[in-house]
Write a structure and sequence with these properties.
This protein is an alpha/beta fold. It is 53% helix and 13% strand. It comes from Thiothrix lacustris.
């Protein structure tokens, strides 16, 4: 089990839609969610995925106050507010960031942060024996209009011995 990760909006929402948010708690002892990320992920509070995120955050995550834009730790790079906060908190805590968006991943890597995407998290969960397979989850992600490159899907299935 890894120690700490900071989560961005996209992975939280898709994990909630897949009803697999508990994987985060099973793989990490501490999950931090910046306040802006939580707001972005739960804007449509009536939706089931938003309700799951609220419950998960209350039980398993530490909601972090946003880092002020004039704080030296705040990293903007023209990203959306949630990504900027997730990357800034990961940098401050010197821990990985759970992030899927391409530009945000590039910025995080530029800041020398370890980046884990939702697909990587699912692979990690399968390797830990927490889920039996990832192929149906990848299909469900696509069914929820989650953007995944065909090459990423193929590589993930190969790594999971499902390809």
């Amino acid at each position: 089990m890894s120690l700490l990760i900071v989560a961005d909006t996209g992975p939280l929402v898709i994990l909630a839609k897949l009803n697999h948010l508990p994987l985060l708690h099973q793989l990490y002892t501490e999950i931090r969610i910046p306040e802006t990320v939580l707001i972005e992920a739960t804007t449509l509070a009536y939706r089931q995925d938003a309700k799951r995120i609220v419950g998960f955050a209350a039980q398993y995550a530490q909601v972090m106050p946003d880092i002020a834009e004039d704080d030296p730790d705040y990293l903007d790079y023209g990203l959306d507010a949630g990504e900027a906060q997730a990357i800034s908190w990961a940098k401050r805590a010197n821990c990985p960031v759970l992030l899927d968006e391409r530009r945000g991943r590039a910025v995080a890597k530029q800041e020398h942060l370890a980046v884990l995407g939702t697909v990587g998290l699912l692979l990690k969960a399968k390797q830990a024996g927490l889920i039996p397979e990832i192929s149906s989850l990848l299909d469900n992600m696509l069914a929820h209009d989650y953007r995944l490159a065909p090459a990423l899907i193929q590589q993930a299935k190969l790594l999971a011995d499902e390809g």
